[in-house]
Amino acid sequence: MSEIALPLFLSLLIPLALVGMALINTGLSRSRNAAHSVLSSLCAAAVAVLAFVVVGSAISGVAGQPAHTIQIAGKDWGWSGGGQLFSHSFRASDTHGLLTLIFQLFAVSMAVQIPVASGAERWRLTATCLSTAFLAALLFPYADYWIWGGGFLSQLGSSYGLGSGAIDAGGAGVVQVTGGLTALVMAWLLGPRQGKFTADGIPTAMPGHNAVIVLAGSLMALLGWIGLTSAGAVLYYNADSGQVLAAVINIVVAASGGTISALLTTRTRFGKPDASLTANGWVCGLVAVSAGAPFLKIPEALMIGLAAGVIVVFAIEVVELRMHVDDPAGAISVHGVGGIWGLLAAGMFVDRDAAVSGQFLAQLIAVGTLLGFVIPLAYSANYLINRFVPQRVDAAGERQGMDLYELGAGAYPEFVTHREDFLRR
């Protein structure tokens, strides 16, 4: 029973990360889109669970169970799990399989929150659900199987002597990079919000409506990340109690480092600390350390977190100023760029077996695989969806606000939610 209790308890903490991410996304949106933002997060989680149960779990599979493989140069490459649709492969007697499924359901629900953040204030709810179904049914499950389920990225160690194969205890790649790259695709396809860029391409500030909600969501996300990373370490890497405790410490240390470095970076560059960017530094620290948290020393976790806080500030600037991509919550930088840094950092610092080299190369291959897999498929699928169900709300709906336009009621009916419209007169 004790073998079930720990991973189950840790997995049940993960929904707190979903709540935290939903609050962050909402707080960084304008008030006339607040209810729509939270509802989009809730619907995305619900659709993700159903899509994964029906289709995704068959692809993800469980390590040690039958899988689909191909032979390349005499080596077996696992490319897909061999499960059945509607999760028929899972049996009540297979407690490890059921624990894995519970973990996967929460992990995929977390991944789909990231594109919701990048599409805020302009992404129709129906289109959000369709896009989420594709992410949960295909993109996430393949990444899951390749890294967590015994697929070819996890086999890089045994097949080619590259360290221990791709290491990703807490989903920096499977959850964060997959979600972050999909968020990049959605921001490209949807285009910027009205008024975000001037005629010269200079981004204008569109502050969120509630920094308190953003900061509270960041604190709540901490517990969810502890659950995600620690449960993943137990289920996929057989982490012992000492490594679980090390993961908790390293997660807290990295988040703290990311917060302080983001605060100092914004204060140095802008003269005063920026609350939303500092919150992003906290979350980016969580993202970056999650790949290797159970296997890191405390100073290494601190270095990863400190670097993440600096990286996220500059990454957000590059996404807006150089790429001209409108990402209201900074999700592409926090989760996509932060997750890539986390995977590479695990290759630099994690040393599970001193006699084996090549860990960094294994992590680099994992990053390249996710980039080459997620971006083209996510773009193609969402472009096709857009041909039948327009992804973006029309101009009138965006001006009115997603709350009134799609839901018929605002989140704050007793307050003015179009302040900037009055200020322009």
Pick out its properties.
globular; 17 helices; two-stranded antiparallel ribbon; mainly alpha; 425 residues; 2 strands; Ammonium transporter fold
Write the layout of secondary structure elements.
Elements: H1 2-11, H2 15-27, H3 34-60, E1 67-72, E2 75-81, H4 95-111, H5 113-118, H6 125-147, H7 156-160, H8 172-190, H9 211-237, H10 241-270, H11 275-289, H12 298-322, H13 331-349, H14 359-388, H15 395-400, H16 402-407, H17 419-423
Antiparallel strand pairs: 1-2
Helix pairs in contact: 1-4, 1-9, 2-3, 2-9, 3-4, 3-6, 4-6, 4-8, 4-9, 6-8, 6-14, 8-13, 8-14, 9-10, 9-11, 10-11, 10-12, 11-12, 11-13, 12-13, 13-14
State the major sheet. 2 strands, antiparallel
Uncertain regions spanning at least 5 consecutive residues: none
SSE run? HHHEEHHHHHHHHHHHHHH
Number of domains: 1
**First-last Cα distance:** 66 Å
Reported by name, the CATH topology is Ammonium transporter fold
Structural class call reads mainly alpha
Q: How many strands in all? A: 2
Query: What would you give as the CATH superfamily?
Result: Ammonium transporter AmtB like domains
- Percent of sequence in beta strands: under 5%
Report the C-alpha radius of gyration, rounded: 21 Å
Q: How is the largest sheet built, in terms of strand order? A: 1-2
Tell me the helix content.
Answer: 55-70%
| CATH hierarchy, class | Mainly Alpha
Question: What's the quaternary structure here?
Answer: single chain
Specify the overall morphology.
Answer: globular
The CATH architecture can be named as Orthogonal Bundle
Mean pLDDT: 91
- Counting DSSP H or I runs of 4 or more residues, the number of helices is 17
